[in-house]
Hints:
The structure holds 2 protein chains of 2 kinds.
Chain A: E1 5-7, E2 10-13, E3 19-24, E4 31-38, E5 42-50, E6 53-56, E7 65-71, E8 74-79, E9 88-95, E10 103-105, E11 109-113
Chain B: E1 3-7, E2 10-14, E3 19-26, E4 30-38, E5 45-50, E6 56-59, E7 62-66, E8 70-75, E9 84-92, E10 100-101, E11 105-110
Parallel strand pairs in B: 2-11
Antiparallel strand pairs in B: 1-3, 3-8, 4-5, 4-9, 6-7, 7-8, 9-10, 9-11
Amino acid sequence: DAGVIQSPRHEVTEMGQEVTLRCKPISGHDYLFWYRQTMMRGLELLIYFNNNVPIDDSGMPEDRFSAKMPNASFSTLKIQPSEPRDSAVYFCASEGGGGGNEQFFGPGTRLTVL
Amino acid sequence: EDQVTQSPEALRLQEGESSSLNCSYTVSGLRGLFWYRQDPGKGPEFLFTLYSAGEEKEKERLKATLTKKESFLHITAPKPEDSATYLCAVQAVTGFQKLVFGTGTRLLVSP
């Protein structure tokens, strides 16, 4: 398996622009997580899905952030409009839900908002 | 609120110099404690899951242990390739699949 796939790997945009991050989880995994990592706050859970349904979005910082999972093999995290404080590395992770509970992370998307 | 505190923030070792990393936690009922390794520019890589006090797990030069209040990651005779940031996370019984991470320990092993 190729592991969790994220795109793009790097994104540089200007304040006010819309940003869309994409994730393909490991095939057969039924949980998908979106995290944000910064030097100041470390790794924070934004939202997670089970069987394509959002379960906990309490970590989504504000209404500018939205996430969707239209099917078992694809998810997006959208920021509209983007702000400089959104600059961070965004990780997607998936989990098989088979009892092991370990999450497998993608390589991340480094977002810079100018 | 579930919390994880890792210490030290950074640790520098000579090759072969054994040491331990600490992860202190407070959680409303522990479902599992996780250790991850993160290399620069990459996503965290799963190492271990511990479920109950007294449990130990080993992988090569790493051994993770768990008590009711903390976990240790022991590194025996480290090599330069063990240099990375080590992250600890807890999953609460009431938190479903949610992981709460500490800020990590940056380990540098010099040859």
